[in-house]
Amino acid sequence: MNRRSLLKLVGRAGGVAATFATMKAMGLIHAEATGAERPKLTAQSGSGTTVAIIGAGIAGMTAAYELRQAGYDCTILEARDRPGGRCWTLRAGDRLEEQSSSQTCAFGTADHLYVNPGPARIPYHHQALLGYCKEFGVPMQVIVNENRAAYFQDDAAFGGQPMLNRRVVNDSRGYMSELLAKAINRNALDEEVSADDREKILAFVRSYGNLDADLLYQGSTRAGYVTPPGAGDVAGDRHSPIDLSELLKSSFWNYKMHFAEGYNQAATMLEPVGGMDQIAEGFARQVGHLITYNAPVTQIRKTPDGVRVVYTDGAGSEAALDADFAICTLPLSVLSGVDADFSPAYQQAIAVGAESYVKAMKIAFQCDRRFWEEDSGIYGGISWTEQDVTQVWYPSAGFQQPGGVLVAAYIWTNSIGERLGALSPADRLEAAIADVEAIHPNLRQEITPNTGLSIAWEQVPYSEGGWIEWDDDALSDAYPLLNQPDDRIYLAGEHLSYLTGWQEGAVLSAHQAVRSVAAQLQAMQA
Question: pLDDT by residue (tens digit) across 419-438?
């Protein structure tokens, strides 16, 4: 039996996954790369092979870009009239269509007056995405993700008053250090420590929490000043420490105080200069000629020679695209509504994923005066609240420029997103203003009239959700299956990565699909 016959028999018995495993064992293909390493396809290895790519988001354009380097003939079908998918920026005059409403962005025309309704930040270690940005000439700037001058607000603590981030964080750290020092002095640690180590630990705790000579927390300049230091005899008046009981009443210690220490949230965080859609535009400069816009896909069919994708063209007529392979990057919430020839198990896995999307929301206003900078010294960063709006984002673009766009709500709790998303756009704005007034009582007076804008991702056509969040059962069952092809149909997107909600996940998933298409083609030609 020759090699090709053997691989065909393995494929019939165990499918594509078994064929790949056999080829790896035979040394015919290499194991998939990890991290940000791009696919390494042989030049012109895909010559004469056609690939239909469904969706011109970051995953779809990444796949097209890489496959084109190896000579594949790619066509991208995109339902919208623009590239990028959820990688999107709204500026003056842009339309925002939801299933039951339509809004027009009424921001001013200055370069820094925009909002990113989808992804808005890029961690420094998302090197696959950043690598493309560098290659395509998309400049980056720092986005302030954490700011000690911002606020925590909770009706259940501090009398409902907003409290400076620096006070909450540093007073909490001080009290925890004091408690640890007491435990050490009472030999209350689980394990005994030497006298020398005990002194070192106490010195560490004292420094970490800024404790006094008696190892007590009596407040710290780290928490800031009521009257800041100045010239002459103005030494400054520091804040008194917040009572520990008040700190414990709030829920900020649960995760919000250390939110910016998370792997995907820690500095340095970046954003493209001019808006997140500059990344989509960078990709489109490379593969835009391959994209057919206003072409929503209605059917995905398996054929004896590959795949047929049926779509509605710009004139409203039905059209079809035949290809050797297909890479579908539609969110599962959208794909579940497409008539497709997937196997029953595959279809069931898609249905499970379709129910797992976050009902994310953002609400933004233009303000002619950057009052957060002028009145509170807040330059970028986030204030947290237990109100429905959850987060208030201060822009990192346009520091000290006239006006700015304040993100008055960033919501990812499904119950809140569903409730507020069901409101009219005008009622959403009113709800956001009322919530943010708990932090900034003057908000209503500072908002530029008629510039409010809200987006409920669950109601956005061709997205139907912000991003996926797999539960443990689905991650064990549905997720692995969907990371395998169904015959010659591959899926890709942030939903098929462990970086859901991040563009890096979309890029890496596209890389995986590209490698797999190349491997399957190699198996067919073996």
Answer: 999 999 999 999 999 999 99
CATH classification for the domain delimited by 95-149+268-275+358-459, as one of 3.40.1160.10, 3.90.660.10, 3.20.20.70, 2.40.110.10: 3.90.660.10
Q: In 149-304, which residue ranges form alpha helices assigned H by DSSP?
A: 165-185, 195-209, 244-249, 277-287
131 three-class SS: helix
Other C-beta atoms closer than 10 Å to the C-beta of 339 total: 10
pLDDT (tens digit, 9 = 90+) per residue, 200-253?
999 999 999 999 999 999 999 999 999 999 999 999 999 999 999 999 999 888
Tokens of 322: 């035949």
Token look-up 């807040």 returns: 378
- The encoded tokens of residue 422 equal 């069901």
Contact between 523 and 325 under an 8 Å Cβ cutoff? The reply is no
Q: Which tokens belong to 150?
A: 């911002």
Say yes or no: domain 32-80+286-356+469-525 is CATH 3.50.50.60: yes
Residue 355 token pair: 């129910």
Check: CB of residue 40 under 8 Å from CB of residue 33.
yes
Gap between the Cα atoms of 113 and 304, Å rounded? 52
Q: Are strands 381-385 and 151-153 parallel, antiparallel or unpaired?
A: parallel
The alpha carbons of the chain give a radius of gyration, in whole angstroms, of: 27
CB distance 108 to 431 below 8 Å: no
Residues linked to residue 382 through DSSP beta bridges, in sequence order = 393
Q: Which two tokens stand for residue 49?
A: 């092979």
What are the tens digits of pLDDT across the range 7-51?
666 656 665 556 656 655 665 444 444 566 899 999 999 999 999
> Which residues of the chain does CATH 1.20.1440.240 include?
165-250
Q: Which helix (H) or strand (E) holds 320?
A: strand 318-323
Contacting residues for 66 by C-beta, under 8 A, at least 6 apart: 38, 39, 41, 510, 511, 514
Residue type, 225: Y
Tell me the whole-structure pTM to 2 decimals.
0.93
* Torsions phi, psi for 425 (to 5 deg): -55, -40
User: How far is Cα of residue 407 from the mean position of the Cα atoms in its chain?
Assistant: 16
- The Cα 40–Cα 34 span in angstroms is 12
Query: How far is residue 496's CA from residue 511's CA, in Å, rounded to a whole number?
Result: 11
